[in-house]
Each structure stands twice: as C-alpha cells, then as structure tokens.
Fold this sequence. Notes:
Layout: H1 5-31, H2 38-60, H3 66-80, H4 82-92, H5 99-116, H6 118-133, H7 142-170, H8 174-207
Helix pairs in contact: 1-2, 1-3, 1-4, 2-3, 2-4, 2-7, 4-5, 6-7
Membrane topology: Multi-pass membrane protein
GO cellular component, one term: membrane
Region (Disordered): 188-208
Amino acid sequence: MLPRVSLIFGGITMLSGVVGVPLGAWLGSSLIKRFPRSHPIICGIGLLISAPLMTLAMVLCEGYFYAPFVLMFFGEVALNLNWAIVADMSLYVVIPPRRSTAEAFQILISHMFGDAGSPYLVGVISEALKRYYSTPQEPASQSAKFRSLQYALFVTCFVEVIGGVFFLISALYIVRDKAKVDRAIAEAEAQNAEPSHSNAQEEASVGE
Length: 208
C-alpha cells in the first residue's frame, strides 16, 4: 500500500474538491437569503473545522494508515467550502467597473501566498528542523526527516486558523460593505437615467 500513498492522497484531494466546492456554493446560496452574513461565516467555520482535522491526520499518519486519509478527506471538504463563496463575495463588495480587477488580485494573491509560496515556506522550515536534528558527525535519520516535514506542515493548519478568524471578522462588515456597493450602483443607474429623461422632455417640447 505504501507505493500507492501518493495516488490515494491525490484521489482524496480531487474527490474532496468535487464534494466541497458545490457544497459550499449550495450552502452559501441557501443561507444568504435568511442570514446576510452567512458567506464569511461558512468560510470561517470551514477553515476552523479543517485545521484540527488536518492536524490530527498528520499526527496519526505515523501509526495509522486509513484514519489519516479519512480525516484528510473531511478536512479538505471543509477547506474547499470557501472557493465559490470567496469569488462571490469578491464581486458583490466591489462596484462593477472594478470587479474584474478585484477578482484578478484575489486570484493572484491567493496563488502567490498559497500554492506558489507555501511549498517553499514549508521546505525552508523542514530543512531548518532537519539541521536542528542533525550534527556534522551524524546526519538526520529518517525519523528526524519525517518529523521535520510533519512539523513544517503544521504551519498550514495555523494559517487556516488565522484565515478562519479573519473570515469571521469580515462577517461584521460584509452587510455594510455590500449595502454601500448596492447604493453606489443605484446612484449610478439613476444618474445614467436622468439625461435620457431630460432628452425625452426636450424632444417632447420641440415637437409641440
């Protein structure tokens, strides 16, 4: 089974995305009408649920085989709840002319500090820990290498907790920010409608 660990982990990651992303979108669309702050709350709770599940999965992976995969699946499902909702929130708290720019920045920053930057950070921490466990006379053992990578990966769970807290904080402001955008859109539409109304009046007076 050990040679298939990477394949199993990849399959679990893919399946958790297939389940988690639509589930998050469904929860967001179902709850937003009754609870206007539900979007950031779903994202925050999802991250705060994912963090302990992923931490426990990494802690148990040394002595168990199936339990870590089960925990990872549910942890990644909870993590993937926010994908569709974050895209939605990024759009409705920004006025229409700036939405494409906001979405581009959101994608850029999430990839810059996520799948692009995090492997480097985890690697740096892991290498530092391996040097701590080793000496010039005795290189790090396989157990020390495993422990170094395991401890380095705990950083991602810590970041999940920080992200969850920030999502919950944003729930305090999301309704106000959306109302500002809706008001700005309504004012812009009213201003655009006024000239056409004036032109119609002028044409009517000329016709008379």
